[in-house]
Design a protein that fits this description.
This protein is an all-alpha fold. Helices cover about 75% and strands about 0% of the residues. It has a single domain, classed as ABC transporter involved in vitamin B12 uptake, BtuC, CATH 1.10.3470.
Length: about 270
């Protein structure tokens, strides 16, 4: 069954959607969209370092993404504005990565595959990495779900409950780094943030509980992957961007559904300002 490249591509897209769903919900609730985008941009530097030192791209991108996220977390506590730090570090890491790749000799590199993904070239080994990473992220989020929700709603409430919000932020940072590392093969570094944010945002009008939003986001992400792949096959368009386009149309549809069909406002978890 896995001999068909379209089946492997579909399974890879679903694997990314499964991991991105609960993580994307917290990204939306905490208003961390730019944080996720910056972490993904830094992954291209990890690709360059991995190729330079002949190591696994998964490990290289995860380490650089994690270092990027930790650097932002540390510097933001020293008086620097978060958006300024993200803008400087994200684009600097992307630029340094692209420059570093140009210095690597003897290796043929398809930058488009890393920037926008190459889901149709997913191998069986890639599937193992993607689903293994997805299982790790889901297990990590499930383990810390209650504490993450509490710290997201109110930091004072979290402290009163014996929960350290900074520790939960590190958990999200680790989960984000792992997701960026294995999703780079599917949608590329420039579109990873879209797979995190768009399905979760599309699920919000259709959900009444945090758990329901995470579940619906997973369904939307998986359907976007399958439909996007089919559209790319039929219309001969890039697979990664096609998946994101389907997710964007879904967000538009749920927004219209919320505005014209649902006369009431869905009560949802209030994100941290």
């Amino acid at each position: 069954m896995l001999d068909d490249f379209m089946i492997r591509a579909g399974l890879a897209g679903i694997g990314v959607a499964v991991a991105a769903a609960p993580l994307g919900c917290f990204v939306v609730w905490r208003r961390m969209a730019y944080f996720g985008d910056a972490t993904a941009h830094a992954a291209i530097l990890g690709v360059a370092l991995s190729l330079a030192f002949s190591m696994s791209i998964f490990i290289g991108t995860m380490v650089v993404a994690l270092l990027m996220a930790l650097t932002v977390s540390v510097l933001s506590g020293r008086g620097y504005a978060m958006d300024t730090l993200l803008g400087v570090l994200a684009h600097s890491a992307l630029a340094f990565g692209l420059v570093a790749v140009s210095f690597i000799s003897g290796v043929r590199i398809d930058l488009m595959a890393y920037l926008f993904g190459d889901i149709l070239a997913v191998s069986r080994v890639d599937l193992v990495v993607i689903w293994g990473g997805a299982a790790l992220v889901v297990a990590l989020i499930n383990w810390r779900w209650s504490a993450l929700l509490t710290s997201t709603m109110n930091e004072d409430l979290a402290h009163a409950s014996g929960i350290d919000p900074k520790r939960e932020q590190l958990v999200l940072t680790l989960a984000l780094a792992i997701t960026v590392a294995f999703a780079i093969k599917v949608v590329g570094v420039l579109l990873i943030a879209a797979m995190l944010i768009i399905p979760a945002a599309a699920a919000r009008p259709l959900s009444k509980t945090p758990e329901g939003m995470a579940f619906v986001a997973g369904i939307i992400g998986a359907l976007s992957a399958v439909i996007g792949l089919r559209a790319a096959y039929v219309f001969d368009t890039p697979a990664g961007p096609s998946i994101v386009c389907v997710a964007a149309f879904t967000f538009l549809a749920t927004s219209v559904f919320k505005g014209f069909v649902l006369p009431y406002k869905v009560v949802m978890l209030t994100p941290i300002p």
